[in-house]
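Task 17 of the worksheet. Students: predict the tertiary structure of the chain below and write it out as structure tokens. Keep your answer in the requested format; marks are given for formatting as well as content.
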Amino acid sequence: MTASSQKRKRVLSGMRPTGKLHLGNYVGALQNWVGMQDQYECYFCVVDWHALTTDYADTSQIKENSLEVAFDWLAAGLDPEKSVIFMQSHVPAHAELHLLLSMITPLGWLERVPTYKEQRENIKDKDLGTYGFLGYPVLQAADILIYKADVVPVGEDQAAHIELTREITRRFNGFYGAKKPVFPEPQTLLTPAAKLPGTDGRKMSKSYGNTIMMADPEPVVRQKLKTMVTDPARVRRSDPGNPDVCPVGDLHKIFSSKETMAKVNDGCRTAGIGCIECKSWAADALVQLLSPMQERRRKFEENPKLAWDILEAGTQRARKTAVETMDDVRASMGMSLKYEAPGK
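Model answer:
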């Protein structure tokens, strides 16, 4: 980090290592992260411990999936010269702070987290009745507070987690921050969340099998677009359509130029163009976006050690910050190894 970057507000965000990323990940988070690098002091973390909260039974793919995520991050424009890019599990202080925060976090706070009940109800093929799953918002709080992050970029579905982190922060500072607060209260930075449908019209998600991957080559992108659902009211080629209710129209709004969008609006509503032509224009826009990223990704695919070296270097930098924070935490709790005479 440069000297000037130390004056910037600090950002922390992360992603679970689920393997290759799709366009929903790019639009929902990664694109915003890339744009934040010149404005904030950025810490971006592959949160592999969080993957264990639901996928603890099989850890065989975590390292490979972590690399795939790193490939896409670097391909999209995350720059190790501007940001600290690292692995959560290789910074042990995350676990230490998680333990300390868990001591002061009321059980009721965790049971009220919206995603806790939601996932318990919706994920039926895994046993989520575990201590780790209930406590993952505390681990998330530790991820944020160990770097004393000022802001956390999230979508609306994660805002409740940041508010819980703020409550834990206030509770910790109330107990142990008599002289001065140990942690700043992190602010929620709601990131723009464009409506990005998958090929079946539902939200793009790996669990639905409707994704367009950032690494998909051009023929695959074009084939997926050909099968994408369109305005259900447009049954025949001669029927006028409505781009505002069409999933392909949603893609155009995010990725296409104003000129293309004008052609789509006019051509669709007047039946001047067919869905096949409209889809091909959407594919053109996606290929134009993805091709340079895939070119950058290829370098890391051919030599994965380049990406792993970046993660290792970033992890060393993250550890240094985390150790400094834990020194402050232990001192505030009277648990420092440094001896102080009674009454000091």
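Marker's comment: The chain has two domains: 4-196+304-332, 216-297. The domain at 216-297 is CATH 1.10.240.10 (Tyrosyl-Transfer RNA Synthetase).
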